[in-house]
Each structure stands twice: as C-alpha cells, then as structure tokens.
Design a protein that fits this description.
This protein is an all-alpha fold. It is 62% helix and 2% strand. It contains 15 helices and two strands. It has helices at 51-77, 81-102, 112-138, 141-149, 151-162, 170-189, 191-196, 202-220, 232-252, 255-261, 266-290, 295-304, 307-316, 323-337, 363-367; strands spanning 41-43, 46-48. A two-stranded antiparallel ribbon has the order 1-2. Strand 1 and strand 2 form a beta hairpin. Helix 3 (112-138) packs across helix 9 (232-252), helix 4 packs across helix 8 and helix 6 runs antiparallel to helix 14 (323-337). The longest helix has 27 residues, at 51-77.
C-alpha cells in the first residue's frame, strides 16, 4: 500500500518507517493520494503541507531569532564565546538526560551506529557555533545575516546532488540571484568593509562555508535509517558530543583567564541562564523542524526570521549598517523568503551521504523488532 504523509515526502523524514524508502507524492503510483495545493500552508516561500510543520517552523524561527540577540548581549557581558556555548551545551545535555531518566520523553541512548555520523556533524556544528560567536564579536549582526542569507544557494545544490531534489525552478533561481545582488550591495556599502577589507569577513566567510555543508548533512542524519524515536535523540547527541571540542577551543583561546578576570554581575548571569533555556529550545525545535522540511527550506527559515533581530539591533546597539546597507539587507531577506523548494525527483536521483559501514542484521533484527516503536504525532500507519 502506498503511504503518503501530510508532510514532505522526503527520503530523510522522521515520518517514514525505519529502513523504508517511501514513494514521492509525484510518483505515478501515489499521485491520486497527493494533497491538493489548497490544503498547503505557505510560509516564507516554502509549502508546508501540515499544521505540524507550520508549528515546528514557527517555533524554530522564534527560538533562532531570539538566541542571536541573547548571545550578542551575553558576549558583551562575558567576552568568552566558547565558554558561553559550552555552558549551553552542558545545560541542554543535562536536560535531555533528565527527560530520559524521568521518562517524560522518549530520548534515545548512545549507540555506536548513531554516534559515528554525529561525530562528523559535531565537528561542523562546533565550528559553526564558534565562527558565529566570533563573527558577532568582530562585526555587526547584519553582516552575519547577509552571509547566512546566501547559504540556500549552496544548500539547494547539495539538495540536488545528495538529497534527491530537483534543481531550483526559474523563480527560485531568480530569488537566489537576488540574494547574491543584495549581499554584494551590502558588502560594498558596509563601513566595516571599508575599514578592514576582507579581514573583517574572515569569520563570517568560514561560518558561511561550514554552515552550508552542515545544513545538508544534518538533514541526512535525521533520517529513518538511524531509527531515532524522537527529536530529543539528535538533540542529546549533538549537544553532548559538542561539549569537549568547544571546551577545548575555549581553553586554546585562553578564555578561562578571561572568565576568571571578568566581573560577573547578576544581570550577566541571568542572561547566561536565559541563553541556556533558549539554547535547549532552538536545539529541539531545530531538529524537529529539520525532520519535517527539506534542507533548503530549513535554511531559508533560518534566514527569514532574522529580520526581527535586525530591528532589535537598531534599537540596542550603535554598531549597525547604513540605510543603504539596511535596504540591501531587506532585499536579501525578501529574496530568501520568495524561494520555493524544489520538488523531489521521482526515481533514481538520491545519492545517500556516507554515515556508517553497513552491517548484517542480528538474529533478533532478522525476526523483527522486539517492541513497537512509538508513532510520532500525525504519523499515518
């Protein structure tokens, strides 16, 4: 029987059964079961085909936009980005372990087959977080957002090469070109560029390259072939495996001495605590949203919700872009918002990214699962 979910019928969705590759909605065997266009929810240029996907996207957008502002405030109070990120990872890890111990949520334990692909993701994830923090420390928020707005260009190509999607349509290609034009206009009018040239964009350039690959690979490792029971599993893996590398980066950068000599006030401690709470929220909602949408759509969501961050930046700091730069920023956000995700290729177009070495099933696995996996909300059995 053809199984069609009300969310994206993507090869790497949480909604599909373990080790099962579903047919795409555009498949001739499933076309009669596909949802009509009127039943879709349109948000930021991405067709979200269920209320659950809309809720996940809105939750992720709210957490992502607020964390950028809170991290900026934390860095002003405590100039140690690795220390802040390490604390956030530790709090999120402890919270996931609490949920697992108390039984309040289904949280996967550590397994070798799942840890291996997440080690590669952790390397990219830690580098992205650190480059994000350093970029906020050395430039303005708008600069980071514009470079982030260019990420869908690379991610859409990775979607085509590795994740079974078509190339962008003419409308989407025009949106990507508009993104490049807006980013170029912003860079040329930015005062930071005029003062420091390319050196002012070293950290955000590294952030752009690493994040683009991370977005595509993150979509892959949230797929059904790893058998996670809920998004809390990837949340635990990504945060716990990032603890030691981020702490090592902080020690190498002599941030321990910076924290020791800093005068921590009640306000700075409160900001750090708030960043930890929002860090848990963005980690869970990020993996949850990523499981429901494509890699490019997930990247676009992360771009478009930053407009609120820019407005808050204008009210809080004097280190912001010129009016022409802000206009260029608005063009970038508009272009990202009008991007439409490419449909899946019907057959033969999916090249799986490498994760683990294939292994033979155990006798118990050959006979079938010993227990029934809990279905996700909205899953069609």
């Amino acid at each position: 029987e053809c199984r069609v979910r009300l969310v994206f019928s993507h090869n790497l969705s949480y909604r599909h059964r373990r080790h099962q590759r579903p047919l795409a909605p555009s498949s001739p065997h499933c076309r009669h079961r596909a949802q009509p266009a009127a039943s879709r929810f349109w948000m930021l240029g991405c067709a979200l085909e269920s209320r659950e996907a809309v809720f996940a996207a809105l939750s992720f957008s709210a957490a992502s936009g607020s964390l950028l502002i809170i991290n900026k405030l934390c860095i002003h109070a405590i100039p140690a980005p690795s220390f802040i990120a390490t604390i956030q990872f530790a709090v999120c890890t402890l919270f996931c372990l609490f949920l697992r111990t108390s039984g309040l949520a289904a949280v996967d334990g550590f397994e070798r087959e799942k840890v291996r692909p997440y080690l590669a993701y952790t390397g990219m994830f830690v580098c992205t977080i650190y480059c994000n923090m350093k970029a906020l420390q050395n430039s303005n928020v708008e600069t980071l957002i514009v470079f982030r707005a260019c990420c869908p260009i690379v991610v859409s190509l990775l979607d085509y090469l590795f994740l079974g999607r078509e190339l962008p349509s003419a409308r989407s290609f025009a949106s990507l070109l508009l993104l490049v034009a807006g980013a170029t206009s912003y860079v040329l009018t930015d005062a930071q560029w005029k003062l420091s040239g390319f050196r002012a964009y070293g950290w955000v350039g590294a952030y752009f390259c690493i994040l683009s690959v991370e977005m595509a690979y993150g979509k892959h490792i949230v797929g059904p072939h790893l058998g996670f029971t809920s998004p809390w599993g990837p949340t635990l893996y990504s945060n716990s495996l990032s603890l030691l590398p981020m702490a090592a980066i902080g020690l190498a950068a002599s941030e321990a001495e910076t924290v020791r000599t800093s005068q921590l006030s009640t306000g700075s401690v409160a900001l750090l605590a708030l960043s930890c709470v929002v860090g848990v929220a963005i980690s869970f909602t990020g993996w949850y949203c990523r499981s429901l949408v494509t890699a490019t759509c997930y990247t676009v969501l992360g771009v478009a919700n930053k407009m609120v961050t820019v407005l808050a930046n204008l009210l809080i700091w004097d280190k912001h872009a010129s009016p022409v730069g802000l206009a260029s920023l608005a063009v970038c956000i508009f272009a990202a918002a009008t991007y439409q995700q490419a449909p899946p290729r019907e057959a033969g177009g999916y090249a799986r990214l490498p994760t683990t070495v294939a292994r033979s099933p155990s006798p118990s696995e050959a006979k079938g699962p010993s227990r029934v996996r809990r279905a996700f909300p909205g899953e069609v059995k």
